[in-house]
Design a protein that fits this description.
The chain has 113 residues and is mainly α. It has 5 helices and no strands.
Length: 113
């Protein structure tokens, strides 16, 4: 959480990276150093974010509550996001009346002078 909050501060990461580049001996140019710094920060966030996966005993079963909470609820959310626009913009939803546009025309012309 601390690293994510640090990354959210405007220009804090950039200033830190530039200061590290200026005061450290390195064979990298500034763009390579920036990539290296970004990779290091992302790997640190991934390491800290996956801490609870390392605590879990390898091969232990997932609890039924986790499966219901995450699996079923995410499936309902995904299906809702997939089906709701179809339902909302169809005639069966009752949200939108029929389209009053009966005819449309589109013209394009080029004038050379």
């Amino acid at each position: 959480m601390g690293a994510v909050a640090y990354m959210a501060i405007p220009f804090a990461v950039e200033v830190r990276c530039l200061l590290d580049f200026v005061f450290n001996k390195t064979a990298l140019d500034v763009f390579q150093f920036w990539q290296h710094f970004t990779y290091h920060l992302e790997l640190y966030c991934a390491k800290m974010g996956n801490y609870w996966y390392t605590v879990k005993i390898l091969g232990s079963k997932t609890e039924v509550l986790d499966k219901v909470l995450f699996g079923v609820s995410f499936m309902i959310i995904y299906l809702g996001l997939l089906i709701s626009p179809i339902f909302f913009f169809s005639d069966y939803g009752g949200f939108i009346t029929t389209n009053p546009v009966k005819e449309a025309e589109f013209r394009i012309s080029f004038v050379l002078q």
